[in-house]
Amino acid sequence: MTSTADHVASIDRLRARDFPGQRTVHGRVAGGPGFHVADLRVSEDFWDADLTRVEEVLEEFEAELSALVQVLTLRWGAPEVLDLTDALERSAMGEPVPPPLDTLCGYVPELHIWRVDGRWVGLGVGQGDRELPFQLLVAIGAEDTI
């Protein structure tokens, strides 16, 4: 398991990166014009898991998210909480949703957002479907993308 310090270092490296000119995926980092999204941690999948195991892992991921939010709050102040339900509804109705929210809204219910140095930094926990892994992720975007 990676530490909070490792996660903060990963976030800082992504914040320093230029955004790619087109959508790309390299390992656990996806990017495109105006954004990066990276998995900080991914659980096992849950194809044959019992509900107790799923709940344990979710609690673990939420605790890790909470610790990371606390560290970044000390650094940058309190985050906004962005509920992605509206983006999911717009996407389902075929309306445009800007990247990376167009993808994130399908599996992340909310993001903790900080606005730092002309970019936003978002953290969340998501799961694409109940059999799929949990993901602790960071999204970084150009200020005008949310």
Can you walk through the features of this model?
The protein is α+β, with helices and mostly antiparallel strands and 146 residues long. It has one domain (4-145). The protein is built from four helices and seven strands, in the order αβββαβααβββ. A seven-stranded antiparallel β-sheet has the order 1-2-3-7-6-5-4. The radius of gyration is 15 Å and the shape is globular. 26% of the residues are buried. The model has no long low-confidence stretch (mean pLDDT 93).
Q: How is the secondary structure organized here?
A:
Elements: H1 4-16, E1 24-26, E2 29-32, E3 35-42, H2 51-76, E4 80-83, H3 85-92, H4 101-104, E5 110-116, E6 119-127, E7 134-142
Antiparallel strand pairs: 1-2, 2-3, 3-7, 4-5, 5-6, 6-7
E-strand count: 7
Q: Structural class, from secondary structure content?
A: alpha+beta
Radius of gyration: 15 Å
Give, in spatial order, the strands making up the sheet with the most strands.
Answer: 1-2-3-7-6-5-4
What's the gist of this structure?
This protein is α+β, with helices and mostly antiparallel strands and 146 residues long.
Q: Which key features would you list for this structure?
A:
4 helices; 146 residues; globular; 7 strands; alpha+beta
